[in-house]
Amino acid sequence: MLPRSAPHRPPAPLAGGLFGVLLLAASAHGTAGAEGIIRGVVDLRRIQVTIEARAASAAMGIPSRRPAELRPAVVYLDTAPRGAFELEEAARATMDQRDQTFVPHVLAITVGTTVDFPNSDLVFHNVFSLSKTRSFDLGRYSRGHSKSVRFDSPGVVQVFCDIHSHMSAYILVFAHRYFAVTDAAGRYAIGRLPPGSYTVAVWHEGEVRETRVVTVPEGGGAVEAAFAIR
């Protein structure tokens, strides 16, 4: 079931057709042993979101209208170097439900990660997704309880609460480790890169906003790449 007062818009595919290109390791990258890092800032200052909660939320101490917030971007390699898909042991991550908001709003993980969805609110929640990458419905559960989902395929998963239509979030599932979520200042860093040229993509709120080829030199080191999202 979709959120009753918010139309569902499927997230736009990531560059490479929903991670399709991400499964192709880039070849002919340079000197063995040399490593580089791509880092920079994604300027999101003009993109702000105001959360509108139901009027009844005020009765539970939750503001019906909250200050505008900046939502992070995800920066990732659209083509990854050899060895990128040799992932470590399956990880675990958390997407909390707090003040009728998913925290974090954007979660980036690798294939095989299990995500816990604890309920930290006084009200019931019902987390679900209709995304092709991973659909699920966790049913209703109260404060202090948690349910989990394992993500075994790469792609974008949009998450909702069936009880609170203003709640939504994204989980980006990658087949490799070369990605980063921007911090509060818009900074990101993707490290442990062998020399070579990579297509760097910036995803924000359901779609890829910009792609650019960035080259790590033969000797490795840091390469700056700044993006402006309007």
Question: Would you mind describing this structure in some detail?
Answer:
This protein has 230 residues and is an all-beta fold. The chain has one domain: Cupredoxins -  blue copper proteins (Immunoglobulin-like, Sandwich), CATH 2.60.40.420. Helix content is 2%, strand content 44%. It has one helix and 20 strands. The protein has a five-stranded mixed beta sheet, with no helix packed on it. A hairpin with a 2-residue loop joins strand 17 and strand 18. The longest helix has 5 residues. It is globular, with a radius of gyration of 19 Å. 31% of the residues are buried.
What is the first-to-last residue Cα distance? 32 Å
Strand content is 35-45%
Taken from the alpha-carbon principal axes, the silhouette is: globular
- H and E order: HEEEEEEEEEEEEEEEEEEEE
State the share of residues found in helices, binned by percent.
under 10%
Second rung of CATH, namely the architecture: Sandwich
What name goes with the CATH superfamily? Cupredoxins -  blue copper proteins
User: Numbering strands along the chain, what is their spatial order in the largest sheet?
Assistant: 8-14-13-10-11
Q: How many structural units, i.e. domains?
A: 1
CATH class: Mainly Beta
Cα-based radius of gyration, to the nearest Å: 19 Å
CATH third-tier fold name: Immunoglobulin-like
**Major β-sheet annotation:** 5 strands, mixed
- Structural classification: mainly beta
Please state the average pLDDT score.
83
User: Counting H and I runs of at least 4 residues, what is the number of helices?
Assistant: 1
- Uncertain regions: pLDDT < 50 for 5+ in a row? 1-9, 20-30
Number of DSSP E strands:
20
